[in-house]
Amino acid sequence: QVQLVESGGGLVQVGGSLRLSCVASGRTFINYHLGWFRQAPGKEREFVAGISWGGGSTYYADRLKGRFTIARDNAKNTVDLQMNSLKPDDTGAYYCAARTRAPDTVWGGNAAAKYDYWGQGTQVTVSS
Questions:
Q1: N or C: which end of the chain has fewer CB within 10 A?
Q2: How far apart are CA 125 and CA 77, in angstroms?
Q3: From CA 107, how far away is CA 122, in angstroms rounded?
Q4: Under 8 Å CB-to-CB from 108, ≥6 apart: which residues?
Q5: Chain segment 75-118, per-residue pLDDT in tens
Q6: pLDDT at 106 (0 to 100)
Q7: How far apart are CA 6 and CA 18, in angstroms?
Q8: What is d(CA 116, CA 119) in angstroms, rounded to the nearest whole number?
Q9: DSSP assignment of 28-81, as one string?
């Protein structure tokens, strides 16, 4: 299996930026599509962004397009999430996730249940 560890969360003011990072260990990194999800208190976990195994295709939740950017470095076994123009609604625990690559999948998808491995999460708090 693969182990995922997130970092980079913290407290930021409205309009600020944060860069989250997730490092993977265990199995061959390119065998996995990757995604970022988030969960606010009392709410369900929601899709933020996804990236294909090779990094050539990226996907975003519609309302986050233009503010968030996902990127992976297969040489370093990392996937980052750059978050700009942060809003109070962006507050929550952010999770990195990995889905085993299969012949019929282009990316991991936006459903949390499709992902096989999860990190422990990193907290992002946007204050007004």
A1: C
A2: 26
A3: 23
A4: 32, 33, 34, 35, 50, 97, 98, 99, 114, 115
A5: 999 999 999 999 999 999 999 999 999 888 889 899 999 999 99
A6: 86
A7: 13
A8: 11
A9: -GGGEEEEEEEE-TTS--EEEEEE-TTSS-EEE-GGGTTTEEEEEETTTTEEEE
Work out the mean pLDDT of the chain and round it to a whole number: 95
Eight-state DSSP code of residue 108: -
Cα–Cα distances (Å) from 35 to 16, 88, 100, 113, in that order, read 22, 22, 12, 12
pLDDT band for position 121 (cuts 50, 70, 90) = very high
Average pLDDT over residues 19-33: 92
Q: Which two tokens stand for residue 56?
A: 């050539």
Which DSSP state fits 110? S
Beta-carbon count within 10 A of 102 CB? 9
Question: How many CA atoms are closer than 13 Å to the CA of 127, on its beta-carbon side?
Answer: 4
Q: What tokens does 34 get?
A: 């990757």
